[in-house]
Design a protein that fits this description.
Helix content: 25-40%
Number of strands: 8
Strand content: 25-35%
Distance between the termini: 66 Å
Strand order of the largest sheet: 4-3-2-1-5-6-7-8
Number of helices: 3
Oligomer: single chain
Shape: globular
Number of domains: 1
């Protein structure tokens, strides 16, 4: 009788363990990402059509575009765009901070660009015209545009773009093949 109870308990624990491990591994399996069917320029146009004119950053994340924009109130928003349907969803909203730091000094906007700069959409179109096959991300940071692109040779490259005249500045570096 004791042997029967012991064997039943071992069998039950084994089944429970196998069930838990298989359920856990199903949750941990890599999720399929949707192929991106929308270009960065089209994503920026969708954002402009939705009323977000101050686009600071657009990148592909897990098969979706993620963008950092400011709305008409100056709040910074993180936006997600479904590349298949074009649906724009607000992921996060940050209320604008004061223009002063705790020390009373003026706050520096790390996304600020010089006056009369090209828009992010114009830079995206320019990169496509210059032969970059895929634009993975573009962001305005510290007075310049930074982009990750795939060039005509299939090399993934980081480049810097002058925001006023659109020239690609020296300092390209290859990321991966």
């Amino acid at each position: 009788m004791i042997t029967f109870i012991r064997n039943t308990a071992i069998a039950s624990l084994t089944i429970l363990t196998l069930t838990t491990v298989s359920a856990f591994s199903a949750d941990m399996a890599p999720k399929q990402t949707a192929p991106v069917t929308l270009s960065v320029a089209s994503a920026v146009q969708l954002l402009s059509a939705a009323g977000y004119n101050d686009v600071r950053k657009v990148e592909i994340e897990h098969g979706f575009y993620e963008a950092t924009v400011r709305d008409k109130d100056g709040s910074r928003l993180k936006i997600v765009i479904d590349p298949k349907t074009g649906i724009v969803t607000v992921k996060e909203k940050r209320v604008p901070k004061t223009n002063l730091t705790r020390d009373g000094k003026p706050r520096i906007d790390k996304y600020a660009l010089p006056p009369r700069s090209l828009s992010l959409g114009e830079v995206s179109n320019l990169l496509e015209q210059k032969g970059y096959r895929v634009v993975h991300s573009i962001k305005a940071k510290r007075g310049i545009y930074q982009a990750k692109v795939t060039d005509e040779r299939g090399m993934k490259t980081k480049i810097t773009i002058d925001p006023v005249n659109g020239t690609i500045q020296p300092g390209q570096k290859s990321v991966t093949r």
